[in-house]
Structure formats: structure tokens, C-alpha cells
Amino acid sequence: MEPALPDASPFEPRLLLTRPEAAARRFLAEMEALAGRPLRATFCPVMAVRAIEAAVARRPDAVILTSEAGAGRAGAMGLAGLPAWCVGARTAEVAARAGLLPCEAGPDAEALVAALLAARPLGRLLHVRGEHAAGAVAARLRAGGLIVEELVAYRAEALAPAPGARLALDGPAPLVAPLFSPRSVALLAAWGPRAPLLVAAMSPAVAEAARALGPLRLVTAARPDGTAMAEATLALLEGRLEGGAPTV
């Protein structure tokens, strides 16, 4: 049973969590650990991950994974036992559970590309990715002389807001929205939120996209990882961003 929260003012800010619910609940738990108290949140995933039927034509020498979903799909497609170059600790954890041999290569695609170009692994690499992928990872690695193929193994399908989320989106209370990708921003914008928004962005690219939402406040996490996002989001929620806070 979730802990009871005191009655809130109709104008008290609350969290708007747009990731798929399992990921959103992990993020909320991290924020509550930082805050030392339960937090009010509205769960309204803007997308759902769906597997795409795909087959590996030829077993690669290693895989590249830029998301948790990609890691799960790689394991399901018989790639267990291979080295896996991963973006972020969470992707590496999922890859390990799927039977791959993960190497965490940094928190974002930029760090991953730099690590691979520096290490220059031999053989064929396979980037298992989603239908919408940012960063042109494979193209940049091929331009750097590596042998890289791509396999689109899942898609993130847009969702409509649930009735409870719609009420929050149209209500008077400010919503603090941690946003992790430009596509999440675009899907949230398509819902036409009318509530005042305070946005924590995962990266400068996400922050730039989020300007279209017209937020009251817009901050960028100090690092492109979950902990920094939790810290930035909590600071917005608690109104601790006056006087030199990182804003864009």
C-alpha cells in the first residue's frame, strides 16, 4: 500500500511522469529517496514500447545498446553471450540480466561514440535500436571506420492521456515534468497541456525541444543520467532554483 499523503492545495505543484509506468515508478522511488518523503505524482506515459519482429541475419561480434528496450530485445533475439557496449547503468543492468556481457560506455550517445572510436573493437558491431533513434550512432561509427550494422527491434508507440492525466493536464495546479527525450517532448506537446509546466530536461537537446511547451521554468540536468534528473526535478518541485540555478 502506498503511503497516504496529506490533502493538497489545488495549486500545489505535482509531478507529471511521462515515461512507461515501470520506469516512471523507478524514477519516483529515486526522487522520494532524495526527498525523504512521499511525493504526489500523476502517471501519464506518452508512449508504450512494442517489439518489432526482427531477425539477426548474421551473429555479430558485439552489440551496441542505447536503451533498456534494446537490451531486452537483444537478449530475446539470441545475442546472449556477446559483449555489449551500453549507454547508461540501467541499460547495462538490463543487458546483464539478458545474458550479455555489458560495458557501460558513458551516460549518453556522445560518450558511447567517443568510447567506441577510442577502443576500436574488431569485428562486426550490431546496434539494436528502436524505430526512432537519436544521435546517428551507427552512421558516425561507420564514418570513423568501424563496421556497424543496425537492427530496428522495437517501436515506441504514442499513447493518449488517461482521464486522470487529462484532468491534471487541463487543471490549474503547476506540473513538474521530467522529460528524457525530444520525442517525449513532442508527444506531450501534442496533448496540448494547459496547466502551468515546470520542465527538467535530460540534455540540452531535450531542453531546446521543450521550449515549444512554453514552460514557466526550464532546467537542464547537470548530467544526462537518472540521478541528476531526479535532483533537478526535485529542485523544481521544491522551488529551490532561485539564485543561479542551471536554466536554459
Number of domains: 2
Mean pLDDT: 90
Largest sheet: 6 strands, mixed
CATH fold-type name of the largest domain: Rossmann fold
Low-confidence stretches: 1-7, 242-248
Task: Walk across the major sheet and give the strand order.
Answer: 3-8-7-4-5-6
H/E element sequence: EHEEEHEHEHEHEHEHEHEH
Radius of gyration: 19 Å
CATH class of the largest domain: Alpha Beta
Termini gap: 39 Å
Beta content comes to 15-25%
The number of helical runs is: 9
**How many strands appear in the DSSP assignment?**
11
Gist of the model:
This protein has helices spanning 21-35, 68-76, 89-97, 109-119, 137-143, 163-170, 182-190, 204-210, 226-237; strands at residues 14-17, 41-43, 47-51, 62-65, 83-86, 101-104, 124-130, 147-158, 175-179, 197-201, 217-220.
Could you explain how this protein is built, in words?
The protein contains nine helices and eleven strands. The protein is of the alpha/beta class and 248 residues long. It has two domains: 14-46 and 160-237, Rossmann fold, CATH 3.40.50.10090; 50-157, Rossmann fold, CATH 3.40.50. α7 (182-190) links the parallel β9 (175-179) and β10. α1 (21-35) packs across α9. It starts with 13 loop residues before the first strand and ends in an 11-residue tail after the last helix.
